[in-house]
Amino acid sequence: MLIRNSLKLTSLHDYYQRLLHGSQPVPSGLDMANTLKFFSQMLLSLLKEVHESPLEMVKSQKYDAERMALYPNLDYKQLYNALTQLIDVVSSIHIGLQAFGQALLQCLACLLPFLDHDLIDNVAYLTASSISVLPMELHQDIVNYLCYYILPFTITRKTEDGTENAASQSIAAVIMMIFQYSSNPAHHCQLLECLMALKPGVVKDILCVVAYGTAPARASAAKLLFYYWPSFNPNLFDRRAVLVKFANDLAPFVCQRDSCPNAGNAEAGKVCYDHRISITFATETPPPMYLCIECANEIHRAHPNQLFYDILHPMQQVSMICENKVSH
Ligand SMILES: [Zn+2]
Ligand SMILES: [Zn+2]
Asked: 273: CA distance to ligand 1 center in Å?
């Protein structure tokens, strides 16, 4: 396995060199996608062997050494660096760019629980920055990877010294990237709603985008600031118009189970954090596993000791008045 792994890393490096220098034959995105899928599959099969809870351990720096010791000693960091390099030369890929982009995002998410502290802190921004070079068809995927697979395991990570981790500090930059390169306001809303559930002071990050972002990013940030925090200025604009626009564009995140009876049409309502269950029922998808209610019930019947948690649904409406009934 070790030899095969380093061989394939050589091929990733070779792709990079040929794209960088434009040397023939220029690699096709489809070939590169297949190589990356090989790595994702390898990572998932390694993860499936682990009996402890790497997804739980990844949430705290304290367990990093213990977590890294769960896996065979392979070049995870080199793989991460190779992916980073490939993002730099994406603009030279002409055939199969979408397939490559999909495989790249999937591989990054699969790699997350194998990374050490410094790299974990970078994954959110690296993923967000891929939006500047990947085609528009992948923008929804990028936002989904961030919201469902990366942000919940990175920005809330506890550091050894109790300070805010670097991933959390990079959130203003993550918002800026998505707001600048996605022209779909539904993506902006999805990202902010995910962040609001994970990070208490996210309003400061939005203010930072309003202050320092590029023109399109700051315009969207200002709009959403008043949308989600109406107390800043309740009369500034017609909130209903914004609501209708956003609601129409929201693409539901669907059940990820391979043999879902609703075949990719049912919205995910539950999440299972057990990586072994996840890799068993969604063989090519990084954990955790997001499921429709029907699949969650079915898997729960077969595995009654597994926990399935509710996932957050998009906000239908933001109240203009304080809804905290306890304080009145
Ligand atoms: Zn399902
Ligand atoms: Zn109140």
From this structure: 16
